[in-house]
Amino acid sequence: MNSEQFSSFLQSISTNSLPVLDAMIPLKKYIPLDLSVGNAALQTVDVSNTSALETYVNSHIELNNGLVAYGGYNEIRNIYRRSEYFNQDDVATERNIHLGMDLWLAAGSP
Q1: Which range, 47-51, 68-72, 77-81, has the best average confidence (pLDDT)?
Q2: CA nearest 78: which of 46, 108, 50?
Q3: 61 phi and psi angles, rounded to 5 deg
Q4: Three-class SS state of 31
Q5: Could you tell me if 71 and 35 are in contact, meaning their C-beta atoms sit under 8 angstroms apart?
């Protein structure tokens, strides 16, 4: 499917923006999340450990009375150092910038 076909497909679904998550979640329950190297709170979290990172994110959401944490685009992250795929010997090819938007919420949420 080329980009024109994909665009037509999306337009056939709806001409309005559609929610990715449950539309009933109020915007005030969306909490910004910083996973960048500049976040001092992450200095005490082993970001190479999935469980430790999950605990940090879930605690952040709970402490801020949220349901969804969001953020991430264009952040420089240490989290990539846990993966050999992103952390190669050649520093010129090392990836440490997040190129997407994260949405974190409880598993099984609508």
Answers
A1: 68-72
A2: 46
A3: -65, -45
A4: strand
A5: yes
